[in-house]
Specification:
The complex is a heterodimer of chains A (346) and B (362).
Chain A (H helix, E strand, L loop, with lengths): L24 H15 L2 H4 L13 E9 L5 E2 L2 E2 H14 L4 E12 L4 H18 L2 E10 L7 E11 L15 E4 L5 H9 L17 H10 L3 E5 L5 H13 L2 E5 L7 H10 L13 E4 L1 H12 L8 E7 L6 E4 L5 E3 L13
Parallel strand pairs in A: 4-5, 9-12
Antiparallel strand pairs in A: 1-6, 2-3, 4-6, 7-10, 7-11, 8-10, 9-11, 12-13
Helix pairs in contact in A: 1-4, 3-4, 6-9
Chain B lengths: L1 H6 L3 H14 L4 E7 H10 L1 H4 L4 E8 L1 H4 L2 H11 L4 E5 L13 H6 L3 E4 L3 H10 L4 E8 L4 H14 L4 E8 L1 H10 L7 E5 H7 L2 H10 L3 E4 L3 H17 L4 E3 L11 H10 E8 L3 E10 L8 H4 L15 H5 L31 H7 L4
Parallel strand pairs in B: 1-2, 1-7, 3-4, 3-5, 5-6, 7-8, 8-9
Antiparallel strand pairs in B: 6-11, 10-11
Classes of the chains: A alpha+beta (346), B alpha/beta (362).
């Protein structure tokens, strides 16, 4: 771990200058001193305009995401963690093992070098732990006020195992729905750490790379129909996507969905539903009934799935709709949230 | 706090109370829950589907966002569009439709509109932005009035010249009386709003209960609070009693919170108040007293005269009086949806139409 807390390289500037994104001498200095030491690998070290990669045979999974979270550091992680883990997860939900990432940094003039360094160290740690290489990148600096501290775009490539085709259209009535742990942690961690909020909680973001959990799950069952990480819009949105793509109904038990007491309490105070709040280290799996118990046991034995639960099932009724059975046993429709409840959550 | 929440939603306790309600009821009753937070808890947990047939809940006007008149929304937008202004508001006011647009659209076209969770945040914004005018959109029932009064008093004490509030405070008892006076009234018992009574106490409700011979139970906002409140009111109805009972004793004292009321009285005076969709109700609102008028945004920015235009399709006034259910409105979930609302009841976190939309029955 000590290698991820290396000291800030000596730079001539304490803050990012416009010229650090100019493509000239200062850009080269920034890359050489701050970025290459973090992400060094043969493809990146060549500093060409592109990475030339050798890939194992098979179909590619390719995904991109941009990270604009505010604040950039929050309990349990930072924008750097999200930028690596989030794209690893997007690739991994196809069943692919993520291999290569690109990183685009958009920096606001005046960003302290120490802040940039902290974020790059977080990205390095997540990339090393996740076993992915950052093979190409870009850095731009915009004038003060034209972005907020730092925005990061990452894209990722992975290779999908032969014969695997995870897709919501494969869902059938009887299939079971599993969530890999407590929901709403990330959204609430970010929201309650925003400085203007007058109460604080102990809630930590769940940011984590899920590809190894996915790999284990796929080894356990060949009856997994679809995987998805319920980020923005939360579990409610992902379940609705499953229902509308498959054309089947879904019923989930409110009491079966794991929610940390602190998350539930904070959601009540803020008027939010934990089922519509973002997660960054959880997945939803739909699996054939026969394999559900075995898959659940394997997930619960994994460090990132300890609180996994079967929360519901696919049904032939109310096609395209998700129903929630409340604690009192009444069924009601679980809608997707209409608007952005929590801007800049990831 | 979290422990309490699970306790007040415990399904086993709920089932016991539901069984008792079923054993108790011998004829149809119409009960109004006054507070929009209670409406949401009822529909979200499904209490309305578990009551004996014949016991009908109607949803009351207790949603401050919903009853804030269009004029205030339009004034807030006009003020927000002024370049020197930072307008601070609770989040659910931002999507409430004004005559032409909402505050979110105003923000998209350049207004500096910021979401706050407390009036203290707005006050802090004023301290940090001395070159700008900071306006807090101060809406709500008796519950939020003490906090809003406090920031005005504090701003006066600090001599802040760049802070003001655009106030629309409404009071529950005059609205209840209006509903009871209406010839269309069907309501036989009321669940009063627990948080309002935490500030105001029981006296006003005892007067109403005695005058109209109607049972009132001051009730909390968790699902089991509501079931217990219903049980208490049904016991009164079935036995022909009409009195004020307090289900929400963990928060409400008989005398309320006199310190909070004193603060409200220092800064605000009562006035005749227009309620969106319902009309002008005598002495049902609060206005900033003359000695604090420098902090009254409506006066500071001279935006009193604004011609407003309501959607002709929206029946939220009838819904707020409990005369129709949201799903009886022809526009419900068709031309009126949360993403393009015709009335405030569709977008407020306490609005009855929003509750029916988000927690639709299967």
């Amino acid at each position: 771990m000590t290698s991820f807390s290396c000291p800030l390289p000596i730079m001539n500037h304490a803050n990012v200058q416009l010229a650090h994104g100019s493509g000239g001498k200062l850009s080269a200095d920034l890359i050489a001193a701050m970025i290459l030491p973090r992400f060094a690998n043969p493809a990146l070290n060549r500093l060409n305009d592109q990475a030339v990669l050798s890939l194992p045979p098979g179909r590619l999974a390719f995904s991109t995401d941009s990270y604009v979270v505010d604040p950039i550091f929050f309990p349990g992680g930072s924008i750097g963690d999200l930028a690596i883990n989030g794209t690893i997860n997007d690739v991994a939900m196809s069943g692919a093992m993520p291999l290569f990432l690109s990183v685009g940094l958009i920096l606001e003039e005046g960003l302290p070098m120490a802040t940039l360094h902290r974020i790059l160290v977080d990205m390095e740690r997540c990339a090393v732990e996740g076993g992915v290489s950052i093979v190409t990148g870009d850095t731009k600096v915009v004038p003060r006020g034209k972005c907020d501290k730092i925005f990061i775009n990452t894209s990722g490539i992975g290779v999908v195992p032969e014969g695997l085709d995870l897709d919501a259209s494969r869902i059938c009535p009887g299939d079971q729905i599993i969530v890999s742990g407590t929901v709403g942690d990330h959204g609430l961690a970010v929201l309650t750490s925003r400085e203007q909020l007058s109460f604080k909680t102990e809630i930590q973001s769940d940011t984590a790379a899920l590809h190894r959990l996915v790999s284990l799950m796929l080894k356990t069952s060949n009856q997994i129909k679809v995987l998805r990480d319920p980020t923005r819009g939360g579990v409610a949105t992902t379940l609705n996507e499953f229902a509308s793509t498959s054309g089947h109904g879904i019923v989930v038990e409110e009491a079966a969905i794991p929610v940390l007491p602190a998350v539930r309490g904070a959601c009540d105070v803020l008027g939010l539903d934990p089922l519509t709040v973002a997660n960054e280290g959880k997945l939803l799996a739909v699996v054939a009934k026969d394999d559900a118990a075995r898959l659940l046991a394997v997930m619960q034995a994994h460090a990132l799935g300890g609180e996994s639960r079967i929360i519901g099932e696919v049904v032939a009724e109310h096609q395209g709709l998700v129903a929630l059975r409340t604690g009192l046993g009444v069924k009601r429709i679980l809608e997707m949230p209409v608007a952005e409840q929590l801007p800049r959550i990831c | 706090m979290s422990k309490y929440l699970s306790e007040f939603r415990e399904p086993a306790v709920a089932r016991l109370m539901l069984d008792e309600i079923k054993g108790l009821v011998t004829k149809p009753w119409v009960i109004m829950e006054v507070c929009g937070g209670q409406t949401h808890a009822i529909v979200r947990s499904g209490i309305d589907q578990l009551l004996p047939t014949g016991v009908r809940l109607v949803h009351g006007p207790g949603c401050p966002v919903c009853v804030t008149p269009l004029e205030i929304i339009d004034q807030a937008i006009a003020i927000a569009m002024m370049p020197e202004v930072i307008l601070c508001s609770f989040g659910d006011m931002l999507r409430v439709p004004g005559s032409q647009q909402d505050l979110l659209s105003a923000r998209a076209s350049g207004a500096d509109v910021r979401i706050v969770y407390s009036p203290l945040e707005a006050l802090q914004t004023a301290r940090e932005n001395t070159g700008r005018q900071v306006v807090f959109l101060a809406i709500g029932f008796e519950t939020t009035a003490p906090g809003n009064a406090m920031v005005v008093a504090q701003a006066a004490k600090e001599g802040l010249t760049n802070f003001s509030i655009l106030v629309c405070h409404v009071l529950v008892p005059p609205a209840m009386k209006t509903l009871l006076d209406s010839p269309d009234n069907q309501v036989q018992g009321y669940l009063a709003a627990g948080h309002v009574c935490t500030v105001m106490g029981l006296a006003e409700y005892e007067a109403i209960s005695a005058e109209y011979k109607v049972p009132i139970v001051v009730t909390g906002l968790e699902s089991n609070d509501i079931l217990e409140g219903l049980l208490m009111i049904l016991r009164q109805l079935e036995s022909g009693r009409h009195e004020v009972e307090n289900q929400y004793g963990r928060s409400v004292k008989r005398e309320g919170n006199p310190l909070a009321r004193e603060m409200v009285g220092r800064v605000f005076a009562t006035k005749d108040q227009k309620w969106r969709g319902i009309g002008l109700l005598p002495q049902s609102g609060l206005t900033v007293r003359e000695e604090f008028s420098g902090f009254d945004a409506a006066k500071r920015f001279a935006v009193q005269e604004i011609a407003t235009k309501e959607s002709p399709l929206c029946i939220s006034g009838i819904i707020l009086q409990g005369l129709q259910r949201p799903d009886q409105c022809p526009a419900f979930a068709t031309s009126c949806r949360p993403e393009h609302p015709l009335g405030a009841t569709m977008v407020s976190g306490e609005g009855a139409c929003a509750a029916y939309y988000h927690y639709k029955k299967l």
